[in-house]
Automatic annotation (TrEMBL):
SUPFAM superfamilies: Homeodomain-like (SSF46689). It comes from Chryseobacterium suipulveris. InterPro entries: Homeodomain-like_sf, HTH_AraC, PchR_regulatory_protein. Residues 218-317 form the HTH araC/xylS-type domain. PANTHER family: REGULATORY PROTEIN PCHR. The keyword Magnesium does not apply. This is Helix-turn-helix transcriptional regulator. Keywords: Transcription, Transcription regulation. The keyword Transcription applies.
Length: 317
C-alpha cells in the first residue's frame, strides 16, 4: 500500500461545498473540511478506491482527540503497535492522537464514507463539561475511558440513525455568516449528545448497587412521598439531598422500584390529591389542582383520569 500525505487528499478550502477529486491511485471520491466551532473541525471523506491505500493523519492531528464515525463501508485505523481498530458501517470510536504514525486504511473497490470530528483537547473537555456536572462525574469518566490510547483499550460504539441524519444536515448546510456558525455549533452538540448517551448507557441488569446506594434510593423514595407540589421538585435537588448522581439515581430507582422517578412522583402527588378530595368535601377541584402544582383544572383532571380511570369530579358527586 502506498502512503499518501493527508494534506494532498483533504483540502482546507471547502467550508461551503463538497470537493470532488479523481485520482489514479484512490479513484473518485468527495471530501469536505468544515469548522464547527473554535478548534473543532468535521472532516468528511468518501469514495471507491482504485486500489487499497492508507492515509497518515497522526502528524496533522497530533495531541488532538478524534471521534471517528463510519457511515458506509469499512475503514481501519492502525499504528502498527497497539492500535488495530476496524470500524464498519454504523460504528464509531474515539482516539487520543499521540506522537505515533497512525493511518486510516481503505480497501480497493469498496465504497467507504467516514466522518471525523477533530477536537483540541481543551475544547473537547469543555464539551464534556457542557453535558456532565458535579453530579455526573462517573458518566464523564466513562466517556474519557472510552478513548483509544496507549493507556486505555477503548471501545467501539454503534451510532444511532439520528447521528447519520445530523452529519447529512451539516454536509448539506448552505447557511452563511452567523446563521451558519450557530447552526453548526448546535449540530456539533447534537452529535455529542447522542454519542455520549450511547457511551454512558448501561443495561440495568449489569448495575451493582451497594447497601449504601440502596439506602440512598430508599431515602429518595421517602423524600418524593413528602413532596406536595410538582413545581417545587427537580431531579437535581433530589441528587443533592441523597448524594447520588443523576445516572445512578435514575437507573437505580428504575431498577429497584420498577418505575421512573417522575412517574413515581406524579403518582404520589395524585394519591395525596385523591385522598384530600375524599376527606375534605368542602375543598374544590380547582383549589386542589393548584395546591398540587397543576396550572389548570383540565391538566389536573387529565392526569387524574390517566392514573385512576375516572375524573376527580366523580369524588364530588
Amino acid at each position: 500500500m502506498q502512503d499518501i500525505p493527508y494534506s494532498e487528499i483533504i483540502r482546507k478550502n471547502c467550508e461551503d461545498e463538497m470537493q470532488i477529486f479523481n485520482s489514479d491511485l484512490i479513484g473518485k471520491g468527495e471530501t469536505a473540511v468544515i469548522p464547527l466551532k473554535e478548534d473543532i473541525t468535521m472532516i468528511y471523506s468518501s469514495g471507491v478506491p482504485a486500489q487499497s491505500y492508507r492515509l497518515l493523519y497522526s502528524h496533522y492531528y497530533y495531541d488532538k482527540i478524534m471521534l471517528c464515525i463510519c457511515l458506509t463501508g469499512q475503514v481501519q485505523h492502525d499504528n502498527g503497535e497497539w492500535l488495530h481498530t476496524k470500524i464498519g458501517n454504523g460504528q464509531s470510536f474515539m482516539y487520543g492522537v499521540e506522537r505515533d504514525r497512525t493511518y486510516v486504511q481503505m480497501e480497493k473497490g469498496k465504497k467507504y464514507e467516514q466522518v471525523s470530528l477533530v477536537f483540541g483537547k481543551k475544547n473537547f473537555y469543555e464539551c464534556l463539561d457542557r453535558f456532565f456536572d458535579e453530579f455526573s462525574k462517573e458518566e464523564r469518566q466513562i466517556c474519557i475511558d472510552a478513548f483509544f490510547s496507549k493507556n486505555t483499550t477503548g471501545k467501539l460504539f454503534d451510532i444511532s440513525n439520528e447521528v447519520r441524519v445530523i452529519c447529512r444536515q451539516i454536509l448539506n448546510c448552505r447557511l452563511t455568516r452567523n446563521y451558519r456558525r450557530v447552526f453548526l455549533e448546535c449540530k456539533l452538540f447534537e452529535i455529542l449528545a447522542y454519542y455520549f448517551q450511547s457511551i454512558t448507557q448501561t443495561p440495568t441488569k449489569q448495575l451493582v448497587f451497594s447497601a449504601d446506594d440502596v439506602a440512598k434510593l430508599q431515602q429518595a423514595k421517602r423524600l418524593l412521598n413528602e413532596q406536595t407540589q410538582i413545581l417545587n421538585f427537580t431531579v437535581d435537588q433530589l441528587c443533592r439531598e441523597v448524594g447520588l448522581n443523576r445516572f445512578k439515581l435514575n437507573l437505580g430507582f428504575q431498577s429497584i422500584f420498577n418505575t421512573s422517578i417522575i412517574k413515581f412522583y406524579r403518582s404520589a402527588v395524585l394519591a395525596k390529591a385523591h385522598n384530600e378530595l375524599l376527606s375534605e368535601q368542602d375543598k374544590s377541584i380547582e383549589e386542589t389542582a393548584l395546591n398540587y402544582g397543576y396550572g389548570s383544572v383540565q391538566a389536573f383532571s387529565n392526569a387524574f383520569f390517566k392514573e385512576y380511570g375516572y375524573r376527580p369530579s366523580k369524588l364530588k358527586g
